[in-house]
Amino acid sequence: MNERSSQSQLFFERVWDVVRCIPEGKVTSYGAIARFLGAARSARMVGYAMNASHKHDPSIPAHRVVNRLGLLSGKNHFSNPQRMQHLLEKEGVLIKDDKVQEFEKLFWDPLTELESF
DNA sequence: ATGCTGACGTCGC
DNA sequence: CGCGACGCCAGCA
Question: Number of folded domains in chain A?
């Protein structure tokens, strides 16, 4: 494993740490996490980290991460596409047409909530 | 081996 | 102000 890929691995782990901090019933976005980690243009990698999260640690609440519009863009990557919505609804988050209702109200921004890392 | 594809978001024109 | 291009780079075909 070269240095660059170990950096990426580190990035993944930081993403997972942040995701683990998301409280129940709250959601955040890929971009917010990316910005929080100082990599504003790596939102895509955050999504990729979510994909990898399943096999790394299934307990990571990947369902609490949606895109910046509040859409459940990653639901197809769960064992069952309905799984993501179901998990959120179980936490009291209402979903309609794959979109989080009252998204702004439920939005959990690591920049404000964690303030620094 | 090598090339393409994405759980996105920002920047440029 | 709308649309297109690019950055990011691990996994898979």
Answer: 1
Local structure of A24: helix, strand or coil: coil
Q: Judging by DSSP bridges, how do beta strands A28-29 and A65-66 pair with one another?
A: parallel
Say which CATH number the domain at A58 has: 1.10.10.10
Identify whether A80 is part of a domain.
Answer: yes
Chain B nucleotides close to protein (CB under 7 A) are 6-11
Return d(Cα A59, Cα A6) in angstroms, integer. 23
- Cα(A65)–Cα(A20) distance, rounded to whole angstroms? 11
Residues 2-41 of A with CB under 7 A from strand B: 29-32, 34-35, 40-41
Model pLDDT for residues A59-86, shown as the tens digit of each residue: 999 999 999 999 999 999 998 999 999 9
SS3 A77: helix
Range of the domain at A48: 3-107
| Predicted confidence band of residue A115 (pLDDT cuts 50, 70, 90) | confident
In a domain, A115, yes or no: no
